[in-house]
Write a structure and sequence with these properties.
single chain, 123 residues, alpha+beta, elongated, binds zinc ion
Length: 123
């Protein structure tokens, strides 16, 4: 008996995000909007300023091209035809290798799921 298993192939691609949203590094108030009763660390004036200094330095490093933003796309193919897709954008280039693996695994699973959904519609 012939098995009719679908041979779904996936292709992972990393691309540079040329026009990323970096507004989160351009000065923000980390403190709670309402008056904070919990006394979070980020609600402390000094901590908030410290975080903003770090963000400014991070943005300067971006402008020096020490890091950049990337997107990861995964396409799923069956017999050369693209039938599934998954993507994630806004990922920092100097991330841990572990995180890269995690993203690729998650997106691959998502793209395969997308492909299987598409295949089920045909059945
Ligand atoms: Zn707070």
């Amino acid at each position: 008996m012939k098995k009719l298993a679908h041979q779904i192939e996936t292709v992972v691609k990393w691309v540079v995000d040329e026009d990323p949203d970096l507004s989160w590094l351009q000065g923000q108030d980390y403190r709670c909007k309402e008056s904070c009763t919990v006394k979070h660390e980020h609600c402390d004036e000094t901590q908030n300023e410290k975080q903003n200094v770090q963000d400014t330095e991070r943005l300067a490093a971006y402008n020096r091209q020490e890091w950049w933003m990337e997107g990861c796309t995964v396409k799923a193919y069956l017999n050369g035809k693209e039938i599934g897709y998954a993507a994630l954008w806004g990922i920092e280039s100097d991330r841990e290798a572990e995180y890269t693996k995690e993203i690729e695994a998650d997106l691959t699973a998502e793209a395969v799921e997308d492909a299987e959904t598409w295949l089920k519609k045909l059945a």
